[in-house]
Amino acid sequence: xxxxxxxxxxxxxxxxxxxxxxxxxxxxxxxxxxxxxxxxxxxxxxxxxxxxxxxxxxxxxxxxxxxxxxxxxxxxxxxxxxxxxxxxxxxxxxxxxxxxxxxxxxxxxxxxxxxxxxxxxxxxxxxxxxxxxxxxxxxxxxxxxxxxxxxxxxxxxxxxxxxxxxxxxxxxxxxxxxxxxxxxxxxxxxxxxxxxxxxxxxxxxxxxxxxxxxxxxxxxxxxxxxxxxxxxxxxxxxxxxxxxxxxxxxxxxxxxxxxxxxxxxxxxxxxxxxxxxxxxxxxxxxxxxxxxxxxxxxxxxxxxxxxxxxxxxxxxxxxxxxxxxxxxxxxxxxxxxxxxxxxxxxxxxxxxxxxxxxxxxxxxxxxx
Length: 368
Known about the structure:
2 strands
């Protein structure tokens, strides 16, 4: 890695990620008191595995990484099919279990779908930027997205599927897609959502939506987790009850407190100040990634960076929103903070790709 690349890298992104990981590890330390910190130790192992991979990803020119992305995309499709035949965990066939560790291919698929989609969009726009708005060309882009999404929904994992959709919307918007498609998409969403609710969604998904609208419908059942989460965040007040001192966290009322509701642990034990800091760090992180997208040296770099920004926007808004009762519970982890090896490694690779793009940027090629 030469000095010019190191000089151009947006180091503030790494600082934000480091602080988020640190806060996450403190929260995991507290949340794993009853399990002798098993999940914390696994998270630290995954962090150690991630560091050399991040360095390697930053060192390789991102153009080469993007060119080879279709191979990884194909491998991910095979894994997404294979994982459907594994033993269900909490009702979902989303993980390959290897000893005491598990791998979630849908997480790694985020990387290759974004890279492949950026490659496809840039190929379509080689001679004319407006080509992306032609139905057949746009259909090709959506096909790249549709295949993995259908496989992920089959697991079922609706939260991760939505993350793919949000990333694609960000990328197509950056590519200058005709605004009529955005209007059509909004209209179709308004029409399709009620149909999905009544005729497509499984019972547990409908229950989550009903509980989101009124947690008191089933306070001891489906509404229990969100009620306990809101109690935890509220009881933390300004400075928190102290690490390892939270009532909801330590008495087992929060579940799952190391993944979906890790932000509730932070709110209860570290208070509003640290919880607000977490949100500010994400805002800075996402803003910096969008700036890198605007200043990338080519379109491919711009599209990849803005797609990654879309992933982080969705995960931050959905996870924090659901812990506060502002959005339905989907089981989406909080990047860099929640426990999960596949999630941590995937998010750090995405950050490495962004740093790779920032280190080689020259000028903005963002669509006006």
